[in-house]
Amino acid sequence: MLEIGNIKEDKERIISGLKKKNASQEQIDLVDKIISEDDKRKVIQTNLDNILSKTNKLSDEIGILFKSGQASKATELKSEVAALKDESKILETQLKDVKELLEEMIIQLPNTPHVSVPFGQKAEDNEVFKAWDKAMPDLGENALPHWELAEKYNLISFKDGVTLTGSGFPVYKNQGARLQRALINFFLDEAISAGYQEIQPPLLVNKETAKATGQLPDKEGQMYYCEKDDFYLIPTAEVPLTNLYRDTILQKSDFPIKLTGYTPCFRREAGSYGSDVKGLNRLHQFDKIEIVRIEHPDKSYETLMEMVNHVESLLKKLELPYRILRLCGGDMSFNSALTFDFETYSAAQGRWLEVSSVSNFETFQSNRMKLRFRDDDGKTKLAHTLNGSALALARIVATLLENHQVADGIKIPEALQPYTGYNMIK
RNA sequence: GGAAGAGUGGCAGAGCUGGUUGAUUGCACCGGUCUUGAAAACCGGCGUACCUGAGAGGGUACCGGGGGUUCGAAUCCCUCCUCUUCCGCCA
Predict the structure, then answer these.
(1) What's the whole-number mean pLDDT along residues A155-184?
(2) CATH class of A4-106
């Protein structure tokens, strides 16, 4: 959620930011409406406070009068208070309505992009920030896509998943299950040695939590929902991890806050079809290790690059072909100010698969969840939040299988071998 | 799931027969005096958000959340949530 103060003080910059993010004309028109509505809010607040101040004073007087036995005088004042109370009731309702309308409008505005974000509408407009420094693997004619490899070596059963649940819920078996577990441990260990604190959060969260990180109301349809208990299945560990610091005032010495956690992620992915959802490309349930940072605003972009380097190091250790994209304004998520996507090459499919997305949200999330810190001047300010996948498993498994396949099996990268306990899938 | 009790400022802990109580006090924390230095002692400060003001300051709201009674509620009533204890169930 954008800060209303920024909207008012820096209107032109906000508008040009919204345009860069391909906001609609309706969204841009909201800016002026928000400003005038907030002015209205202030007037009402001032009037209301004045009336409440008067009633408070009169109530005190009434108390004193009653104690000194001047009941008739007190009764006189009572009617005066009653009139003021009617007035304040009206203003209170107005204030509530204005605040609701304001929130409703502000929540519709996406975050504004960082200056380095390239202009553009679609995925094709993203900038290749960094490409792999090695040659793309040449797998030859007989290379198989991961879903065929999974079947050939009995690693994953998509069919069994359909029986148990439905499409998009694969069942991992044998060396495939072991590979999953190995990757989870490998990624967690890497994060821990980079200084992240490991967290095991709940997989179901309440409305407040889903709202604070921006999943509600924006992505309501994307989440699985347990109606009976009013809980949402998390679409990413970002949600519970970041919310650990909801409604908090940090000291400067608390920075940096570095959290990591492994969780399954649940996404409805309604409307996806075709080659997009083939095999492990897009699932309703997949495993992911997330890294979350809460930072001082002066440090957050430095931190973002640190996270990018961390994710890159993982892909290098797994010996996977990758590229890093700096997302253009139109392709960025609603919440983000700057996002780097990581893609690995699916050699057999001839396409790039997104395996990580590392973003700085600046104060967009912290404003909604009231995550502040006390700055040197003693004032509270909003902290910056960041997060990234390090990494998302299913697609990593897909490209790992494809890129490391040889005639008689699939080679396991050296870094992963201590975790798998085998060096070859056969 | 059933029964009883409880939720107050960073923590501990008063207030809860309604009226200068945003809230006694202790600890923690910050500044100062004293000291060669430290500790102790003493003095002072010490919540958040919003409105207003150039500023100093002034005002409003908040004692788990929401609603109600009343001129006036941390204090009374309703409701929800959470915690503790006992019972039931159970990985």
Answers:
(1) 95
(2) mainly alpha
Q: At what angle do helices A393-403 and A174-193 cross, to 10 degrees?
A: 110
Residue-wise pLDDT tens digits, A6-16: 999 999 999 99
CATH superfamily membership of A123-425: Bira Bifunctional Protein; Domain 2 (3.30.930.10)
Whole-prediction pTM value? 0.92
CA of A254 to C1' of B13 (A): 28
A19-23 average pLDDT score: 95
What's the CA–C1' distance between A370 and B7, in Å? 23
Domain residues of chain A, as ranges?
Answer: 4-106, 123-425
CA A59 → C1' B43, Å? 37
- φ, ψ (nearest 5 deg) of residue A388: -165, 155
∠ CA A127-A130-A132, nearest 5°, is 130
Model confidence band, residue A245 (pLDDT cutoffs 50, 70, 90): very high
Nucleotide closest to residue A80 (CA–C1'): B71
Class of residue A80 by CB neighbours under 10 A (exposed 0-12, middle 13-18, buried 19+): middle
Which of chain B's bases lie under 7 Å from a protein CB? 19-20, 48-52, 58-61, 71-72
HEC sequence for chain A: CCCHHHHHHCHHHHHHHHHHCCCCHHHHHHHHHHHHHHHHHHHHHHHHHHHHHHHHHHHHHHHHHHHCCCHHHHHHHHHHHHHHHHHHHHHHHHHHHHHHHHHHHHCCCCCCCCCCCCCCCCHHHCEEEEECCCCCCCCCCCCCCHHHHHHHCCCEEHHHHHHHCCCCCCEECHHHHHHHHHHHHHHHHHHHHCCCEECCCCCEECHHHHHHCCCCCCCHHHCCEECCCCEEECCCCHHHHHHCCCCEEEEHHHCCEEEEEEEEEECCCCCCCHHHHCCCCCCCEEEEEEEEEEECHHHHHHHHHHHHHHHHHHHHHCCCCEEEEECCCCCCCCCCCEEEEEEEEECCCCEEEEEEEEEEEECHHHHHHCEEEECCCCCEEECEEEEEEEEEHHHHHHHHHHHCEECCEEECCHHHHHHHCCCEEC
